[in-house]
Amino acid sequence: MGFASALVLFAHPDDAEYMCGGTVAHWAGNGTEVHYVVVTDGSAGSNEPGMTREQISGIRKPEQDEAARVLGVRTVTFLDFPDGMLEVNLETRMAEVLVAPDPSRLWFGRRYINHADHRAAGELALCAVMPDAPSRPQFPELLEAGFEPYEVPNLWLSTEEPDTYVDITKTIDLKMEALTKHRSQGVEDDLQWVRDRAKELGEKGGVEYAEGFLAFSLKEEEEAEGR
Ligand SMILES: [Zn+2]
Question: What percent of the chain stands above pLDDT 70?
């Protein structure tokens, strides 16, 4: 799987490590330029009384940077929408994507039951790649800033029911290490099931450990439809 570049879009610091940390490390190790876009500021990720949004965000952003460094991610961009209040609107739709959460079936939820931000981040990804309808005038401020519409060639959704598996046998330890960088999130309790899940997907993919995605090759589909 030789992508030149990958953009991983997700709601909160730590989501990408859960969804696709092994894949990111695998790609980065093979020369893919991987970039992260974290849609929220992570500022609601604590139940500790007295913690302000500012403090929580100030802890979680450096954790995300550390985790990204472990995996070989080139850049981490925070769009800084408030954690817990992510909405699908014209402002939030100005992102583009390669890897994102499946809005209805992200695997660390239960089918449609999931964090509202995760669903919104997935929905935003789908809005951003919608390739059919001409929409150049929709975001004049982007055109003014020099950004022309870009057609995303591949969209991979992290999902419960994948059709594409990435062998992460060699990078699962990096995924685990990156996850542990999110110290404020109590990830230690999750390490076992994350590993179990990778093993389960590995069995389906015919390898020891895997991550799974629902993969859309958007260009090919257009060609297949004769456009
Ligand atoms: Zn999350």
Answer: 90
pLDDT in tens, 172-183: 999 999 999 999
Which range has the worst mean pLDDT, 27-31, 32-36, 138-142, 206-210? 138-142
CA 209 / ligand 1 centre spacing (Å):
22
Cβ–Cβ < 8 Å for 159, 102: yes
In the reported structure, the alpha carbon of residue 134 is separated from the centroid of ligand 1 by a whole-number distance in angstroms of 32
Task: Supply 113's token pair.
Answer: 């039951």
CATH of domain 5-224: 3.40.50.10320
Distance of alpha carbon 128 from alpha carbon 27, whole angstroms: 23
Strand-strand pairing, 75-81 and 154-158: unpaired
87, 76, 67: which is closest to 25 by C-alpha? Answer: 67
The count of residues in the chain is 227
82: DSSP letter: P
Q: Tally the C-alpha atoms within 13 A of residue 143's C-alpha that lie toward its C-beta.
A: 7
Among residues 172, 166, 201, which one has the least CA distance to residue 3?
Answer: 166
pLDDT (0 to 100) of residue 92: 67
Q: Judge contact between 45 and 54, C-beta under 8 A.
A: no
The predicted model gives 181-201 an average pLDDT of 94
Residue 62 structure tokens: 């450096």
Distance of alpha carbon 75 from alpha carbon 141, whole angstroms: 24
- Residue 209: both structure tokens together: 């450990």
Distance 130 CA to ligand 1 centre (A): 24
